[in-house]
């Protein structure tokens, strides 16, 4: 049976079916490697780095379209053979007969299959499905490329010499260039850079008397490039780490009085509250210089600013963006008021009511050694001192900071009073409003403030140390698999339909030799003789169809069958011969 089937299919059709199936399987395997292959192997990396993947997908889809088109043409010929050996309306006999050899196009073929559904539902639907799957796969390139997007793809390790700090000589030069008067409080923070964080969520106190953020160590990266920071997958090297834990204790007030204080360079006096504040409770694990002391209203609380440049590792937990403060418009009392939107920045800083993970905040996870005994960069007293002078402990002490959006002017405030920059103050006030925690609000504000100071000093760094930066570079690659799954499903459906067409041809067709034009032509020519349609050589098809319809013969059923013909030899003997031709189907 197999040999008979191959003979009826013909060498060319058999080659098309088998070779086309091989091409489709190979193309799908190739596309599977592009979508799901090992991303760090050299061939894949090479293709991604040279932006070849879209071209390769386009070429693979071209092969799919060619294989599907040729297989569909052959499968339609099989379906036409089955239809012709079943029964075909007289008006469609030439079309279906020639369809066994040549495809007249999708529109004509589709119309033939639609008309055949009534007479042979299964075969007609099979042919129509073959056409529809072929049309759908003509868009395989578009469907596949719809999965592409610019996403993090390749991991690149770079071991470089990084400037991580500066020495005493640079510090002496900076003394005359930097302002140690606390002027940084009034500066506008322009960037809210990515940092690494270690926190201990097991110790966090929020009660009526105490608001304590718990242990929180934040590390600023010595990387000036914003794109590098955003694409950072892992960092191992020296960074400046800062203890940003904040604890606020409800005070017990005493000796509260009003006092008139003269406005500098003026004869005017302003009234201020003065007195003493004593903490109502004690906080463990904090140095005594930072809490548990009685202080006056008129000066800042005693403070100890700790930072050091340490050898640490930081690991990325996901994609990130460096946030910005934007402008939002709010309707207040029928007036449009522009306000600063600090939500994205506060989300990064963790100053939100909802407790977010480091990944959700777009931060790196800081990995500290046991007991926080990481290797410290030696001889960094000058840099650490400048960081303190530049931030919370200026040489000229700050008497007061005004964290408000409608403050009085500095000139009217006594002593060294600073109006905190509006952006910084907005972060503090919005954090306080959402979290109802002064500790969280202060932690957010001091982090931005320290961050601004650090990156102001980065251009002066001249101490080189080795650092390893692991970057995940973004490339145009498959970012999802919906399109791939759709094309794979369509190819599988197509192959199943072709296999069904071959199986039906093997079972239900007996007389057709595929891809034989003379057979298709002469078998159809018998119909002309039988019906006297000799004028078909000179008139259009529509006139033939109209004539058959007028005679009521356009719906006659004809089929390909073998008949026995008798003829007499010249010597007078009668001989018989089996002839395959298209004949009118009898009941």
Explain this structure to me?
The chain has 587 residues and is an alpha+beta fold. The protein is 41% helix and 25% strand. A 5-stranded mixed beta barrel has the order 3-6-7-12-15. A 3-stranded antiparallel β-sheet has the order 1-19-20. Strands 4-5-8 form a 3-stranded antiparallel β-sheet. The chain starts with a helix and ends with a strand. About 3% of the residues have low confidence.
**Content of β-strand:** 25-35%
**By helix and strand content, what is the structural category?**
alpha+beta
Separate helix tally: 18
Rg, alpha carbons: 42 Å
- Overall shape: it is elongated
Sequence of strands across the biggest β-sheet: 3-6-7-12-15
Task: Name the helicity range.
Answer: 40-55%
Number of extended strands: 20
Overall average residue pLDDT: 78
What is the number of domains? 2
Major sheet: 5 strands, mixed, barrel
The termini sit apart by 30 Å
| Low-confidence residue ranges | 287-305
SSE map:
Elements: H1 2-9, H2 11-36, H3 42-49, H4 53-86, E1 88-89, H5 93-99, H6 106-119, H7 121-137, H8 140-145, E2 148-165, H9 168-174, E3 195-199, E4 205-206, E5 210-212, E6 216-220, H10 226-230, E7 232-243, E8 247-249, E9 251-262, E10 269-279, E11 295-296, E12 307-316, E13 326-332, E14 335-341, H11 343-349, H12 358-361, E15 364-367, H13 381-390, E16 400-402, E17 417-419, H14 422-435, H15 438-457, E18 463-478, H16 482-508, H17 517-531, H18 541-550, E19 557-568, E20 574-584
Parallel strand pairs: 3-15, 16-17
Antiparallel strand pairs: 1-19, 2-18, 3-6, 4-5, 5-8, 6-7, 7-12, 7-18, 9-10, 10-11, 12-15, 13-14, 19-20
